[in-house]
C-alpha cells in the first residue's frame, strides 16, 4: 500500500497517475491531510510553493509569479517526478507523461513552426522523457502531420462502424463483444443488428453531404464474424449511404483468421475495401490456445495468403507483447514468421490486463506476470525489426492498466507501416483533428469543432456515445439516432 498525504484534492488525478507509474503493482490510498505525516508520500500545495517528501527525499518549487492551473500542474508533476525518482532510484522512459496520446505534444509544437529536433528537446526537458521515447513521439508526429495535411485536417470527416461480434471472445478482451458460438440464434441476432445499423447509417449519410469522406473503418469485435449474407448487406448499406468517390481509405478489420474465407474476402474486395487486418497476435500455437483463440499459426498463414490471392495489397497484422508464458525469444520468433508474409503494416500492442477480462483472473490464480522489462525488450525487438525491414512508426498510443498489474501502464502501442501504406483512420482517431461519426453498439462519435490546424492548439471536441450492449443498441436504435440529431443538427447544420 502506498499512502499519499496531500492538503488538497485539486490535482489528485495527476498525482495518482504519476505515483502509479512508479509503483504499478501497489494499491494507492489518497488522504487529505493539512499537516505532514511521518509516513508515505507527503505533498503540500500552496499558491506559490510546492513541497514534496518521500522518506528522506525532499523536493520543493517556488513560483516567482502567479501560475495558471496548467503551469502549476506541470511543475507539480516535475517536482513529484524528481522526488519519486530519487526515492526509488528509478527513471521512467515516459517521464511525467501519463496520458494516452503523447504524440500530440510534439505535433502541437511542430504545427506551430517548431523543428522536429526542438520538439524532441522540449519532450526531454519539460516532461523528462528519454531520448528514445521523445524521438519516437516526434517521428510519429512528423508522419502524422503529412497524413493529416493530405486529408485536409478537419475539412473532411471519417466513419467508424462497429461490429460487436466474434467467433469466440479472447480471454484478455474486455470489450462488449458477443461470442457468436454462445448465441442460440446467431443468424437472427446478426439480422436484427444489421437492420438497426442500417437505420443509423441512413441517418448518418444525410449529415455531411457537403464534406469529403476521408476514411471508412469497420472494426469490432470481428467484422468478418458476420456471415456472408450480412457482410454483403453491410457493404451494400455503406455504398448506398455514403459517397466514397474521394475516400482515401476503406478498411475492414478482418481480424480473426478463423473468421475469414474466400467468399468473404471477395465480398470486401468487390465493395472497394482497400485495407484489411489479419491479426495473429502471436505465432505460437500454445499461446493461441491459452488465450482462447480458435485458430493456429498455420491458419493465420493460410488466411493471409488467401487475402493476397484475392488481390489485397495493403494488409496489417496485429501482435501483442506480453502474453502469458511468452519470452522475448517467442516474440522474436513471431516477428520472423511475420517477415515471411511481409505485410504492408503491423501494429504491436502492449498487453493491458483489464479488470473485466478472464485473462486477469487466470493470471492472478496462476501467479503469472511479466515484468515491464520483458515487455520493453519485446517492443525494442519490434522497433529493430521495423527499422531493418522498411517499416516506419506512424501512429502510437498508450493504455492505462486498469487491473493494476503494471504491464502496459507506461508502455506504448505502435503502428509501423511501409511508406504510403499507413492507415489514415488510425491517425484520425488518435490525433483527434477530424470529426469521426461512429456507428454501432459501443461506438463513440467525436465532433471536432472548426479550428486552425497550424495554431498549435488542440481543437474542441464534442463526444456522442452509443450504448455498448448489443441488445440495448438494437432496442434503442431510434434513441441513438436522436442523440446524434440533438448534437449534430444544431451544431453542424446551423453553424
Provide structural commentary.
This protein has 495 residues and is of the alpha/beta class. The chain folds into 4 domains: 2-88, no CATH class; 104-140, no CATH class; 151-314 and 424-488; 325-340 and 351-420, no CATH class. The protein has helices at 12-22, 69-88, 104-111, 116-127, 131-150, 186-204, 228-241, 262-270, 285-290, 297-309, 328-341, 358-366, 372-388, 424-431, 470-475, 477-493, and strands at residues 2-6, 28-32, 41-45, 49-54, 57-62, 157-163, 165-166, 178-179, 213-220, 249-255, 275-278, 315-321, 345-350, 392-398, 412-417, 435-439, 444-448, 461-465. A 9-stranded mixed beta sheet has the order 14-15-13-12-11-10-9-6-16, with helices on both faces. It has a 5-stranded mixed beta sheet with strand order 2-1-3-4-5, covered by helices on one side. It has a two-stranded parallel sheet with strand order 7-8. The longest helix is centred in the N-terminal third of the chain and has 20 residues, at 69-88. The chain is globular, with a radius of gyration of 24 Å. Residues 402-409 have low confidence and may be disordered.
